[in-house]
Amino acid sequence: MLKPKLKSTFCIMAMAILMVVPTAACSKPAPASSQAPALTGTPGTKASFLTTTPTSTPVSGARVREWISDLDSNDFAVKRSSIKFLGYSGDRTAVAPLLKFLNSKPHPVLRNETYVALGRIGDPSSESVVTDALANESQDFWDLWLDGIAGASPGEPVIKADIVAIGRPMIGQLNKWLTHNNSKVRQMAAQALDEIMKE
């Protein structure tokens, strides 16, 4: 049995623990800006294809020029996030540099990001170029999409949003996917086609 003095000390310590634990458990999460890059953030921030979406806020011409310059970076992550930011900027001065970058035959993941970025910018002058480029894409490129669709339950809305962002240049491939042996792919293709045709 605890002596009165020890018992008193034990009770004080127990109360202190009970007061600290709820405080730690209820601490606020980190600000959103530390969890995902904002459109005005640093282009070098690595972004996830399935879960990270830059926010749509106005950007300066200087920032757009910085992102265009970063297309020549040797850092894969810098290139990838810069392409994403250019797409969400909606700045048509990025169209020609993005098309030039696409023509350099970068990694399939970067080509995918470039198609999406061009679609988000929405300059009609790039549509026929993107359509032709997609028509000549490798099977490795399409396998990236198929693998993403087949196994991406949490990321499905983002993948579909990217397909819809590319828009009409994707129609030919989506029509092929309507007869794919994977039901997820067929469903995604049908939904994306429906949204594209409504635009």
Describe the SSE topology.
Elements: H1 4-25, H2 61-69, H3 76-89, H4 95-103, H5 108-121, H6 127-135, H7 139-150, H8 156-166, H9 171-177, H10 183-198
Helix pairs in contact: 3-5, 4-5, 5-8, 8-10, 9-10
Written account of the structure:
The chain is mainly α. It has one domain: Leucine-rich Repeat Variant (Alpha Horseshoe). It is 62% helix and 0% strand. It has 10 helices and no strands. The chain has helices at 4-25, 61-69, 76-89, 95-103, 108-121, 127-135, 139-150, 156-166, 171-177, 183-198. The longest helix has 22 residues, at 4-25. The N and C termini lie far apart (78 Å). 25% of the residues are buried.
Could you give a short description of this structure?
This protein has 199 residues and is mainly alpha-helical. It contains 10 helices and no strands.
User: What class do helices, strands and sheet pairing give?
Assistant: mainly alpha
Q: What is the H/E order?
A: HHHHHHHHHH
Percent range for β-strand residues: under 5%
CATH homologous superfamily assignment: Leucine-rich Repeat Variant
What's the total number of strands? 0
What is the CATH C level class, in words?
Mainly Alpha
Number of separate domains = 1
The main pleated sheet reads as:
none
Our Rg estimate from Cα atoms comes to: 24 Å
CATH architecture classification: Alpha Horseshoe
What fold name stands as the CATH topology? Leucine-rich Repeat Variant
> What level of helicity do the residues show?
55-70%
The averaged pLDDT comes out at: 77
The N- and C-terminal alpha carbons lie at a distance of 78 Å
Poorly predicted sequence stretches spanning 5 or more consecutive residues = 5-53
What is the count of DSSP helices, taking H or I runs of 4+ residues? Answer: 10
